[in-house]
Amino acid sequence: MSDILEAGRRAGHACWIEQRLFETLGSWVADAARSAEPALSRMLAEHAHHHAWHAELWRDRLPELAEHPPADAVRPRHEAAVELVDTLSSVDGTVERLVGVYRVLLPRLADEYDAQLQATSPLTDGPTARVLKLCLADLHDDRSEGEATLRSLIDSPEVAATAHAREVALETLAAAANGLTS
Fold first, then answer.
1. Which residues sit opposite 68 in a β-bridge?
2. How is the chain split into domains, by residue range?
3. CA angle, corner 3, sides to 59 and 10, nearest 5?
4. DSSP per-residue codes, 54-78
5. Which of 54, 87, 144, 167 has the smallest C-beta neighbourhood within 10 Å, fewest atoms?
6. What is the DSSP string of the chain?
7. 6 φ, ψ (degrees, to nearest 5)
8. Are 143 and 111 contacting, i.e. CB atoms less than 8 angstroms apart?
9. Which residues of the chain have pLDDT under 50?
């Protein structure tokens, strides 16, 4: 039973973080549209929908136990993850936002999903492994597109310095989280 509960906690936390990424990126879509950045707005909307879908995939992986309702499992596993995502959600500035998502959060999330995938058993974890592979494929593609967009916006030493400072600050928070999904 404890293996089922632990798998449920991991899936619940992954569902939570994917849902928060959907909400965060989705809230930035309107800002990009108001700033006359239609390509950025389209990219953020597309990536937000990927995270919404990932959250649904994880929600479907939650165990159905009478004493542990699935909805109760959709929560962060630790406060440091909440602080990281809350900080990222409150960031202003396109470059700073993209740095947070595409250079800090998504690479860590992909590393953790990859580690989870490596730990799965082909005999017992097939559906979870499939979810991890689907999420990883989207994360890889989204990171590539986001990084290319970010590089196109870093057009001066000042902007590069701002991007670096935001990356360092968020990496410090991410290190304190010591795992987004574990």
1. 65
2. 2-177
3. 35
4. HHHHHHHTS--BTTB-HHHH-S-SS
5. 144
6. -HHHHHHHHHHHHHHHHHHHHHHHHHHHHHHHHHTT-HHHHHHHHHHHHHHHHHHHHHHHTS--BTTB-HHHH-S-SSHHHHHHHHHHHH--SHHHHHIIIIIIIHHHHHHHHHHHHHT--TTT-HHHHHHHHHHHHHHHHHHHHHHHHHHHH--SHHHHHHHHHHHHHHHHHHHHHT-S--
7. -65, -40
8. no
9. 1
> In terms of Cα–Cα distance, which of 96, 101, 84, 113 is closest to 178?
84
The two structure tokens encoding residue 9: 């906690």
Which residues are CB-neighbours of 25 under 8 A, at least 6 positions away?
44, 45, 47, 48, 51, 101
Query: What six digits make up the tokens of 28?
Result: 């930035």
The set of residues, in sequence order, having a beta carbon less than 8 Å from that of 107 and lying 6+ positions away, is 143
Q: Which two tokens stand for residue 151?
A: 């590089």
Q: What is the CATH number of domain 2-177?
A: 1.20.1260
Residues 11 and 129 sit within 8 Å (Cβ to Cβ)? no
Flag whether the pTM goes above 0.85: yes
pLDDT digits (tens, 9 = 90+) for 130-149: 999 999 999 999 999 999 99
pLDDT tens digits for 32-65?
Answer: 888 878 999 999 999 999 999 999 999 999 887 6
Length of the chain: 182
